[in-house]
Design goal:
Blueprint lengths: L2 E9 L2 H16 L5 E6 L13 E7 L2 H9 L1 H4 L2 H5 L2 E10 L4
Antiparallel strand pairs: 1-3, 1-4, 2-3
Length: 99
C-alpha cells in the first residue's frame, strides 16, 4: 500500500533550504523512487492556527520504503540543513486510503 510522507514547517532560512538542502535531498531520493507530489511555499491555512509556510508531500510505494529513505545515512547526513532552516518541524507518515 502506498504511503505518504508529509512535511510542514515555517521557513526561516529560504536560501539554505532551497540552495543547500533541497538539491541534496532530491539526490538522496533516487534509490527509493518516490513521487514528489507537493512542494508548496504558498500554503493557505483554512482551518486551525498554523504559522507553516511550506508543505512537502512525497509518495512512496509503502511505509517501509519511506522509513528506509528517511533513516538512510545519505538523508541523515543532510537533514540538519532542513531542521536548521525551519521552525515548527512536523513530519507525518500516512497510508493511502483504500476502500
Amino acid at each position: 500500500m502506498a504511503a505518504y510522507l508529509i512535511f510542514t514547517h515555517k521557513v526561516t532560512d529560504a536560501d539554505t533550504l532551497n540552495n543547500d538542502y533541497l538539491p541534496k535531498a532530491v539526490e538522496t531520493l533516487g534509490p527509493y523512487a518516490p513521487e514528489i507530489l507537493i512542494v508548496d511555499e504558498n500554503v493557505e491555512v483554512i482551518e486551525g492556527d498554523s504559522g507553516d509556510t511550506r508543505t512537502v508531500m512525497l509518495k512512496f510505494k509503502d511505509r517501509d520504503e519511506a522509513r528506509r529513505w528517511y533513516n538512510s545515512p545519505e538523508y541523515q547526513a543532510i537533514v540538519g540543513l532542513r531542521l536548521n532552516s525551519i521552525e515548527g518541524a512536523r513530519a507525518v507518515l500516512c497510508d493511502e486510503f483504500e476502500d
